[in-house]
Amino acid sequence: MTRVAPARCLCLGVFLPLMLAAVLHQAHSADPTPTPQTTAAPHKDPERPERGTYQLTDGNGTVCLLAYMGLQLNVSFNSVSENKTFEEVVNVVPKSTNVSGLCDSKKAVLQLTTDGQSKNLTFVFTLNTTSNKYHLSEVSLNATWPAIKGPFLVKNSSLDYLRGSLGYSYVCRQEQTLTVTKELSINTFQVQVQPFGLKGEQFGAAEECQLDEDAMLIPIVVGAALAGLVVIVLVAYLIGRKRSHAGYQTI
């Protein structure tokens, strides 16, 4: 009399790694809702900029805009004298930056002046009083460089960045790049900004940016996938034990 063991299921050593790879690929290749004109910040020299605290006060001495962020300028311009295109990457250094601007009920203008008076970077935030939502609507840069003659002036008044709700602060811990024009983009680092609805000198409750939400979602998806694989392994193990206790087939 010959006894043979029951047929086994597909080898888990092959099946599980393939399933894990598929799940991880799906988690990383998910297509989240994009933020208009916003991309992951490129890694360029100089080094990561220092975060600075910038604030504006209104006519009553009340803080009306508060920002805590690191800024890095990516500038491209043509030098007529040398017939070349120059690219500059410049950090905004908080300790050598002067802050000015103004606030009213619908608009907040933050102007950062660096390197003496040679670079003026201006942010304009606009509040929609119907929806109680604000956003960065305009950025301009007026600067001089030794390589070019005359001022370097760029401006875009049709932007839609750093969107938040009245009374709340916009927060984005991830590095991102705000495209202003083809000549200027701005890398932002660990931004927290609130241009309206401040109470004292403290930020309101934070509203996370899409990049931060996506960064939090991926570990959750991967963790859930791993937990599912553990369950599959356990079920397969129990089924295998049950079949082995059922005895052998007799031929």
Automatic annotation (TrEMBL):
Signal sequence range: 1-21
Pfam families registered for this protein in UniProt: Lamp2-like_luminal, Lamp2_2nd
Disulfide pattern: 172-209
Top-level taxon: Eukaryota
Stretches assigned to the Lysosome-associated membrane glycoprotein 2-like luminal domain: 49-198
Transmembrane region(s): 216-239
Residues covered by region (Disordered): 29-53
Compartment(s) of residence: Cell membrane; Cytolytic granule membrane; Late endosome membrane; Lysosome membrane
One Gene Ontology cellular component annotation held by this UniProt entry: late endosome membrane
UniProt membrane topology term: Single-pass type I membrane protein
Composition bias, Basic and acidic residues: 42-51
Gene Ontology BP term (one): establishment of protein localization to organelle
Protein name listed in UniProt: Lysosome-associated membrane glycoprotein 1
Organism of this sequence: Oryzias sinensis
